[in-house]
Write a structure and sequence with these properties.
The structure is a single chain. With about 220 residues, the protein is α+β, with helices and mostly antiparallel strands. The protein folds into two domains: about 5-150, 3-Layer(aba) Sandwich (NADH Oxidase); about 165-220. It is about 50% helix and about 10% strand. The chain has seven helices and four strands, in the order ααβαβαβαβαα. It has helices spanning about 5-10, 25-35, 55-60, 80-115, 130-135, 165, 180-220; strands at about 45-50, 75-80, 120-125, 140-150. It is elongated, with a radius of gyration of 27 Å. The mean pLDDT is about 95. The structure holds flavin mononucleotide.
């Protein structure tokens, strides 16, 4: 699957078939997480694969009772090691880099799952202490997110997204105008449409006008 298509067509899946995911698929997904960019390449993120049904139920319960989660045959608990980042980058390592590295890993894993024909969902609502207890996480490790994985038993509709020109600026906050070349590049389909339509209208009406002038001249 082409990368952009994979990004565009991935959906959060919250209904799963009762079908096991092949182990090599799970490993490929974890590898994709590992290949994410991490500040200073410190890889201060670990992945706990949960297959046990009772534990998945407990995780769903601890995730603000999102019971749909328990039907996903695989949960991946993404654990961050902020202390490791703090040693290199201080507070920034804890507050920013650990979270961003884990988020990059999670997105890589979601996309890989999708490319393998699997459904997945990023779960961020959970009781961290309860997940920590369920997965035996030490105090210095925190829970960055949970991913559910399995074969989708639903085809979710794409959520609404804003148009690209509403979410991008040129050079500065709310910078709407770029130099003519790049600016027109973005707007060119609209401008081209407008110019074509105007040209069509002028041609149409000018023909009529010429006809009318000719008629009047004949009458005179
Ligand atoms: C940080 C984060 C936390 C999320 N937490 C949850 C969650 O707890 N439960 C859930 O069902 N979806 C959760 N989602 C999934 C979003 O609801 C979903 O990505 C969004 O509605 C867009 O839909 P899409 O993933 O199909 O494009 C979370 C997504 C992110 C990025």
């Amino acid at each position: 699957m082409e990368v952009f298509d994979c990004i565009r067509t991935r959906r959060s899946v919250r209904k799963y078939k009762d079908k096991q995911v092949p182990w090599d698929n799970i490993v490929e997904i974890l590898q994709a997480g590992k290949y994410a960019p991490f500040a200073g390449n410190i890889m201060n993120c670990k992945f706990i694969v949960v297959k046990n049904e009772a534990k998945r139920k407990a995780i769903a319960e601890a995730s603000v009772q999102q019971y749909w989660m328990q039907d996903a045959p695989i949960h991946i608990v993404v654990a961050g090691e902020p202390e490791k980042a703090e040693r290199y980058y201080g507070t920034r390592g804890v507050r920013l880099y650990t979270i961003q590295g884990a988020a990059a890993a999670i997105e890589n894993m979601l996309l890989t799952a999708h490319s393998l024909g699997l459904g997945s969902c990023w779960v961020g609502a959970f009781d961290e202490e309860e997940i920590r207890r369920l997965c035996n996480l030490p105090e210095h490790v925190n829970v960055q997110g949970i991913i559910t994985i399995g074969y989708a038993d639903e085809t979710p509709s794409p959520p609404p997204k804003q148009r690209i020109e509403h979410v991008m600026f040129f050079e500065k906050w709310f910078g709407r105008i770029e130099g003519p070349k790049t600016g027109l590049g973005m707007w060119s389909p609209y401008i081209k449409k407008g110019v074509t339509e105007t040209h069509r209208m002028i041609t149409k009406h000018s023909k009529k006008l010429v006809e009318k002038v000719k008629e009047r001249l004949k009458k005179k």
